[in-house]
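chain below, 563 aa
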Amino acid sequence: MKNINIKIGTLVLLFSLIVGGCKDLDEVNENPNGVSPSNANVNMLMPTILVGVGQNLVNLGYQDLAGVVQHTQKDGWNGGHNHYEWGLQDWTGWYGLLRTNEFMIRRAEETNSPFHKAVGLTMKSLIFGMVTDLWGDAPYTKALQGDKPGKEYQLPEFDSQEVIYRGIIADLKAASALFATSTNATVIPQYDVYFGGNVARWQKFANSLLLRYYLRVSDKLPDLAKAGIEEVAKTGIYLTDASEDVVMDYIGASAADSWPTATSFDAGSNFRRLKPCNTLLDYMLETQDPRTKVWFREVHCQWVEDKTLTTAVDPFIRRNGVLQQGVVSLTDEQYLVQIAAGNKFTRHYNPDILGSKLDTRSIVGLPPGALSPSEYNRNPTPGQTLENQHASQLADIYRQTKHALLKARIISAAEVYFILAEASLKGYAVGNAESHYRNGVQSSLKTWGVLNGFDAYIKQPKVAYNGTVKQIIEQKWIASWTNASEAWFDYRRTGFPVLKVGPASPEPVLPVRFIYGGNEINFNNERVTEAINRLEVTPYEGGRGPNNQWSKTWINQGTNKPW
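prediction:
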C-alpha cells in the first residue's frame, strides 16, 4: 500500500509546487472534459464501490473459499481451491475501493448529504471487515491518508483486529443513526445499485451488518456483543425477509459485468472445472434439500450397478439402455442436446469384478482434496479435454451471463435469522431460537425459489430443530452458497460444520487466514513485520514462517477454534 500512498502524496506535493510558482496555472490547466474533485457528484461515486464490493465477494465466495468450506471442488487447476496452495495475497482491490469510499464520505460532508455519508460509513465497515476477517491486523486508523505529510501516513501502522472491529461497530452505529434521520432528497436512484435510494433498506443493511460483527467478536468481547445484539434486535430494524436480501445484479453485457463462469466468455473452461463437493452434497441429498437441483445438474452419464455384467465396466456408454459402440463419451454440448431431447445415458459396472464401488447417484460430487480429482468416479476422459461425464456440473444457470438467481449476495435475511438463533442460544434477549432458526431456513429456501419445499424439509431428522449451535451453523453454511467467505468465518469461530481436509492438503487442518501480500512486505516491511509477530504460530507452520495460512489472528487466539 505504500507505493499507492506515495504516488498520491507526490502528486499533491507536485501540484502545490506548480501552483505556487504559476499563479495563472488554474486557468491554463483547466480540463474542459474532466470533473474537478471539488465538483464531483457524490452519487456517481456509489456504483464503483457497490459493484466492486459485490464482485469481490462473489469472486471469493464462489471460487477458492467455496473450496475451503467444501461447497465446491475443482477437477482442474485446483491447487488453490481444493488444498489451499496460497501464496502472498495483496489487498489492493479492497483498499482501492476504500479510497474511493473515503472520497465519497468527504464529498458527502462537503455537499451536506447525510445519506451518502451513511452509505460511505456502511461500506467502509463492510470493506474493512473483509480485510481484517481475511488477513488479520491491517492499516486502519491511519490508512487512506497518504496525502498527509509524515511517515505514519505514508507507511501506516497495522491496527489490531480488536481496534478494527470496534471501529467497524462504531461506524455502523453512526450510519444507522444517520439513516434514521436522513431523506433521499440528494440521491439519484439509478446510482444506488443495491436499493435505488431506499433509506429504510439501507438502515436495515447497516443494522444487519452490526449483528454480523457483534457475533463475530462474541467470544472475544462477550459483553460488547451481548449488549449490541440485544440493542439491534430490540429495534426490529434488520433484514426480515428474503425479498430484503442485499444483492447486486449482473448486467451480462461483457465478461466484466457477467457471472464469473459465464460460458459465452471462456468457452466453458472455468464452469467445467467447478463441481459440487461431496461434503455439502451428501448432506443435501440425505435431507432431500429442495435447493439441490437448483444448484447442481444431474450427471451426463450415470453409473448403474449390474452384477450380471461379465466385465468390470461397460466399454462404452449406453443411450436409453443400448450400448453405443465405440463411444466412450460425448462432449458437453452433445450431452446437453441429447439429454434435452429426452435421452438417458448410463454405463454399467459389476462391483464384484471391479473390486470397488462407484457412485451411482444421479447427482455426484467430488470428495474434498482428492489427489486426482479429474479421474474421480472412473472418468474415461481425465484431464482438461472433456468434462467428467460421471460427476455433476453446477446447474445450467451458472453457465449464463445473468439470471434472476445469479446475484452477488452481500448479506441475507437467512444469515440474520441464524445470527439471532445463535445469539438466543448464548442467552441473549433476542427472542426464541427455534423461531429464528426456522425463519432462517425458510428465508434461504425462498431466496432460491423453493419455498414450497419448506414443510417437508424442516421435518427431516437432521433439519428439525434440535437446539444446537452445530445445527444452526450447518444450515447457515448451506445458505451461504456463493458467499462462502461468511461460512469460512463462521467455521473459524465455531468449528462447524465439521470439515476434514483431503489427502492432497499439505496440512491436516483447514487454513484460517490469507497471507500478507508482497506490496506490504516490500514497501511497508517494518509495520507488516510487527503484525506478523502478533500472529499465533500453530503446529501447522510447516517451515513457512509465521505469515502463513495456518497462523491464528487475534479473533481465534485463545479460543481453541476451529482446531
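Residues 298-393 form one domain. Residues 56 and 93 are 8 Å apart (CA to CA).
thats it, cya
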